[in-house]
Amino acid sequence: MNSLRDKIVLVTGASAGIGEACARKFSEAGARLLLCARRLDRLEKLAASLKTECYSFKLDIQKESEVQQAIASLPEKWQAVDILVNNAGLSQGLDKVQEAVLSDWNTMIDTNIKGLLYISRAIIPGMVERGRGHIINIGSIAGHEVYPGGSVYCATKHAVRALTKGMLIDLVETPVRVTSVDPGLVETEFSEVRFKGDRERSKTVYQGYKPLDGDDIAEACVWAASRPEHVNIAEILMLPKAQASCTIINKKP
Question: Which CATH architecture fits 8-238?
């Protein structure tokens, strides 16, 4: 087992959901946390509740220059990132291609693909130079399948899956490990964001069965990161028991 004590873990989108859960679980394992998201107030509240040392900073990963500046400006004691959890991501709308709002597409592509690339490009060179590191990309079952109304979101998560495989190839001659954790239905703010604040509609997504929660995904991330250095968990697909595919869910009244 690989100890996570005192390792520096950078979690993007750490202000809620899977990102917040990852922060808590890695902190419980003894890691030091770098927390970033657009909602700094939430990050600071989270950091105050954790038992290990934290450094929080506001970051919109859609903005390349902001990512470069934020990583370059990290205090010296926080620069040697051991584990990067590429968690920040979202979905907007549930529309057919011919009916979709173009700004929704741009938001998903800029966050889920370009944002992941920006932060990875800023962090991975240091890992290679130091001879250690682990990239954990939070993917989705949507990276394995396509469902009605989800064409562009699924395309972004297929891209994350392809990028994860590309990273595995690019980094195979280095000690840096790469993992994709791909959840099915997880009860977080995901649906509320997708439906642009419509809480009643978002609640119906998780009714009639027990979905996964953020802790389930975070525990998988910690498990993958704590394997011996010669072991790389390349991909984990996690579903609630009631889910068999993107569209096949055993919902009970």
Answer: 3-Layer(aba) Sandwich (3.40)
